[in-house]
Design the sequence.
């Protein structure tokens, strides 16, 4: 039935978002040499889920919102959707700020990268 399909689809989206979020957080952690405050341009590592670094400055937020969208589809509740919307709007604001800071700090920052939504924003 369609309810079960939505649940499996929502669960799959949620799990993909959570794995992507974990992967990008670990990648961010490993970008800075231990014991230093050196900052570098975030780039993908060998993990396929980190390829999103090629498209956006804050893939952790992209994956976080994807998780909440998946959770909304899984639970099919208004409040989960509202939380996804409000949380996504807040994360977009944070991503825009980080994106501006990266562009200001790194003169060779990739020009085609967006803040959080690939190819759009």
Sequence:
């Amino acid at each position: 039935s369609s309810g079960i399909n939505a649940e499996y689809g929502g669960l799959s989206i949620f799990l993909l978002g959570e794995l992507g979020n974990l992967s990008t957080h670990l990648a961010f952690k490993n970008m800075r040499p231990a014991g230093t405050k050196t900052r570098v341009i975030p780039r993908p590592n060998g993990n396929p889920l980190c390829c999103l670094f090629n498209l956006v400055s804050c893939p952790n937020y992209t994956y976080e919102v994807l998780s909440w969208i998946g959770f909304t589809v899984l639970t099919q509740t208004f409040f989960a959707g509202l939380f996804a919307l409000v949380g996504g709007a807040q994360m977009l604001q944070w991503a825009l700020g980080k994106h501006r800071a990266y562009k200001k700090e790194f003169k060779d920052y990739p020009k085609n990268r967006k803040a959080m939504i690939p190819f759009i924003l």
Helices lie at 2-31, 59-75, 78-105. The mean pLDDT is 94. The radius of gyration is 16 Å. The chain has three helices and no strands.
